[in-house]
Specification:
The protein is α/β, with parallel strands linked by helices. It has helices spanning about 20-30, 50-55, 65-75, 115-125, 140-145, 155-160, 200-215, 220-225, 235-245, 260-265; strands spanning about 15-20, 40, 60-65, 85, 105-110, 130-135, 165-170, 175-180, 185-190. Helix 9 (about 235-245) packs across helix 10. The longest helix has 16 residues, at about 200-215.
């Protein structure tokens, strides 16, 4: 199903429509959604992925911010009982009001480059979906899956890898989009861990530590723990906590694995 008039991409919303049908199919195949699955599509745009999902999954929820595109999606799919069109911002929409079983949900989308990180962490709020497959800027994909000690490793990698597995699936060149962006993209798959490895209090402590550490990523761990305004951990407890995490106070944040950050955050006073 195609849209009459083909609404133009809006730079203000970071829109780049995926027009290559081969990549459209590959992305839907990577989602591995079947006839019993409920799927949330983030920013369906002109329906590049939607047309491959509608009728092939049990229920499809489309969240689209753009007024014209949301109206076109409603016209194209609104009469279907297995499709729900939600006109709203994925960062603000109450997903619980539209999704029947968040813990079994599969999420897919070609999301705007400028708000990739907020969308990712929004989707990873509890209750977390079963699987998230997103087309993102290639550089961001590298940061999501980055290993400790690499240049791309940082707060994004730790934040996601502490609660989920993450893998880069394949690259999508810029010429697969219209308008053509200035960068290439890559598809990533994020699968939240089951059972949840951390409770909400532990996650809050971890986020505070990771945010502080990578704000001062060029400094040694001891100085970060002692002097960062969000931490202020005395030397003795800091040294003991670092030792239990298998780290040293001379280490810099990019040397610590997500598990070491988890242990360190749990051991700090």
């Amino acid at each position: 199903m195609t849209f009459a008039g083909k609404p133009r991409a809006k730079r203000s919303l970071g829109q780049n429509f995926l027009v290559d049908p081969n990549f459209q199919r590959k992305i839907v195949e990577a989602l591995e959604a079947g006839p019993e699955d409920e799927v949330l599509e983030v920013g369906p745009g002109r329906g590049a992925l939607t047309r491959h999902l509608a009728g092939n999954v049990r229920r499809l929820v489309l969240v689209e911010l753009d007024d014209a595109l949301a109206a076109a999606l409603q016209e194209a799919y609104g009469s279907r009982e297995d499709v729900r069109v939600v006109h709203g911002d994925i960062l603000r929409v109450d997903l619980g009001a539209h999704v029947r079983d968040a813990a079994r949900l599969r999420v897919v989308g070609n999301i705007p480059y400028n708000i990739t990180t907020p969308i990712l962490f929004r989707l990873l709020e509890r209750p977390r979906p079963r699987e998230i497959v997103l087309l993102v800027q290639e550089e961001v994909a590298d940061r999501i899956v980055a290993a400790p000690g690499t240049a791309a490793y940082g707060a994004l990698a730790v934040g996601i890898q502490s609660v989920a597995t993450a893998e880069r699936l394949f690259r999508v060149g810029r010429n697969a989009f219209r308008p053509v962006p200035r960068v290439d993209s890559a598809l990533v798959r994020v699968r939240p861990l089951r059972p949840e490895p951390l409770d909400e209090c532990q996650e809050t402590r971890l986020r505070r530590l990771v945010r502080a550490a990578f704000q001062w990523r060029r400094k040694q761990l001891g100085k970060i723990l002692r002097d960062h305004p969000d931490l202020h951990v005395p030397l003795g407890p800091a040294e003991a906590a670092a030792e239990r995490a298998g780290a040293g106070l001379q280490d810099r944040p990019e040397r610590l694995s997500p598990q070491q950050f988890i242990t360190l955050s749990s051991e700090l006073p």
